[in-house]
Amino acid sequence: MGARILFSLDIDGTLEIGDPAGPITLTQVRELINRGCIVGSASDRVIAEQRTMWEKHDIPVHFVAHKHRLDETRSNFQHLDRYIHIGDTEVDKRYAEMHGFEFFYPEEFCSIVQ
Fold first, then answer.
1. Which alpha helices (DSSP H) does the chain contain, by range?
2. Contacts made by residues 21-25, CB under 8 angstroms, sequence distance 24+
3. DSSP 3-state assignment of 17?
4. Quick one: what percent of the chain has pLDDT higher than 90?
5. What is the sign of the dihedral through the CA atoms of 89, 9, 49 and 25?
6. Distance of CA 88 to the CA centre of its chain
7. How far is CA 61 from the centre of its chain?
8. Which residues contact 65 (CB under 8 A, 6 or more apart)?
9. DSSP β-bridge partners for residue 109
10. Which residue ranges in the chain fall short of pLDDT 50?
11. In Å, how far from its chain's centre is CA 25?
């Protein structure tokens, strides 16, 4: 079995359905889930809005959270090999690093999922 990885995705500026749209497609998100990764969103958007967004696109994510509470996400999914947050701002980077996540910008996404 491969490494157990959690991907936390910002929405706006990161996902193709964000406002503004970002470079990561919903097909790529589905592929991560199909590979056995733990996948969800950590955004400034309210939790209910995030859940509705994923349900609308029929994507069964493992969690929705606020980016400033990535520590709670990490504690809910313990004993994984990697915790990765992908976002488009310095705020995303700061919260990721504060809570022990690796951080990548959306444009770097393809290089980390190979």
1. 26-34, 47-56, 70-76, 90-98, 109-112
2. 22/88, 22/106, 23/106, 23/107, 23/109, 24/86, 24/106, 24/109
3. coil
4. 92
5. positive
6. 12
7. 9
8. 8, 40, 41, 42, 43, 47, 72, 73
9. none
10. 1
11. 12
